[in-house]
């Protein structure tokens, strides 16, 4: 998804949240490097992941808080930063699960740590390569887990009222738990001996991304602004938007170049991930050919898989599903009044439009 062209006020607030996250990383880096200078490299790598990207989640918190023009409370800035940091945590861990070596054109946290282990830290001998991989993956798991706990700490230190802080921590940790469940299901459903159906795969796809990327940030913004009565509509709106976002992301990972996605073009196909796209194709007559190609592990045949995904109608089906969800989100936005100001509604429409644009593959 490209960066949404949204109301500048909300984009500027999101950028301030990113600046705050940079400050917190600098504080942590100074503390840890005093203990051991070798901590500097993994902190730098994690910082690049957590402070890079589009910052959609912090943007959504600010849109849903819907503060009038002018200064905003620090708690908005800190809580928005927490959701960006949570996202960074999951990216670091997801790259380990998917064995991805690049993210946004740079080495992933575990890939960079593997390279340091092999080059700088004296790992050699018959088990050297495996030892370097173990080291790199361990560093990434620790980094991702530290980012997750750091997100909770940002909320705890945000300055929101005690009752709101408790609600926000519950919101973030619940969303994180759902994402972990979705990630497990994604891994489990991709095993060759597991048969599942489209509904189960769609549920896993939703759980991986939507609760922490859309539902929770939107609800957090409303809680910060004291608009608790809007949380139900925002959750439903986030549910539909997040589902469409993940479907669009699945399409992009298969059909867009790495220069756009920042990841390997093989991605989910090479791993045989049970995405809604691949599951839709497997319910047609092309399944035997697709399964044979994926089982072979031959990357030169992935172009043929892409052709089959289009010809069997799976791409069109996923696009239609995503557009239905976007239409539902637009209707809730229009009918609910969950985003009171015209600026906030315009900004959220820009997010929906950006997702819609990314369906064009």
Automatic annotation (TrEMBL):
TM spans (from-to): none
Needed co-factor(s): Mg(2+)
Pfam families per UniProt: polyprenyl_synt (PF00348)
Signal sequence residues: none
Pathway: Isoprenoid biosynthesis
Alphabetic keyword roster: Magnesium, Metal-binding, Transferase
Transferase keyword on record: yes
InterPro entries found in the cross-reference section: Isoprenoid_synthase_dom_sf (IPR008949), Polyprenyl_synt (IPR000092), Polyprenyl_synt_CS (IPR033749)
Similarity-based family: Belongs to the FPP/GGPP synthase family.
Name under which the protein is recorded: Polyprenyl synthetase family protein
Species: Corynebacterium marambiense
């Amino acid at each position: 998804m490209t960066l949404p062209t949204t109301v500048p006020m909300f984009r500027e607030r999101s950028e301030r949240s990113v600046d705050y996250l940079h400050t917190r990383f600098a504080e942590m880096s100074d503390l840890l490097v005093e203990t051991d200078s070798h901590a500097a490299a993994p902190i730098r790598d994690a910082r690049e992941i957590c402070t890079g990207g589009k910052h959609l989640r912090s943007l959504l918190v600010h849109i849903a808080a819907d503060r009038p023009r002018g200064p905003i409370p620090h708690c908005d800035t800190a809580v928005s930063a927490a959701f960006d940091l949570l996202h960074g945590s999951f990216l670091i861990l997801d790259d380990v699960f998917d064995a991805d070596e690049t993210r946004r054109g740079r080495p992933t946290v575990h890939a960079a740590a593997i390279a340091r282990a092999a080059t700088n830290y004296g790992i050699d001998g018959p088990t050297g390569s495996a030892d370097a991989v173990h080291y790199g993956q361990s560093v990434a798991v620790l980094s991702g887990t530290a980012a997750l706990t750091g997100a909770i700490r940002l909320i705890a230190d945000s300055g929101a009222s005690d009752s709101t802080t408790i609600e926000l921590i519950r919101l973030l940790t619940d969303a994180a738990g759902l994402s972990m469940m979705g990630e497990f299901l994604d891994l489990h459903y991709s095993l060759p001996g597991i048969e599942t159906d489209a509904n189960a795969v769609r549920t896993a796809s939703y759980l991986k991304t939507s609760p922490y990327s859309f539902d929770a940030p939107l609800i957090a913004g409303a809680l910060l602004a004291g608009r608790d009565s809007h949380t139900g509509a925002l959750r439903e709106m986030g549910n539909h938007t997040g589902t469409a976002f993940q479907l669009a992301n699945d399409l992009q990972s298969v059909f867009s170049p790495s220069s756009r996605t920042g990841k390997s073009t093989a991605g989910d196909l090479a791993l045989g991930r049970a995405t809604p796209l691949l599951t839709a194709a497997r319910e047609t007559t092309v399944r035997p050919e697709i399964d044979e190609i994926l089982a072979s592990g031959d990357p030169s045949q992935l172009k043929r898989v892409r052709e089959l995904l289009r010809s069997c109608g799976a791409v069109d089906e996923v696009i239609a599903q995503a557009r239905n969800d976007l239409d539902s989100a637009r209707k809730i936005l229009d009918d609910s009044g969950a985003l009171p100001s015209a600026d906030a509604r315009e900004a959220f429409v820009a997010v929906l439009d950006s997702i819609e644009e990314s369906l064009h593959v």
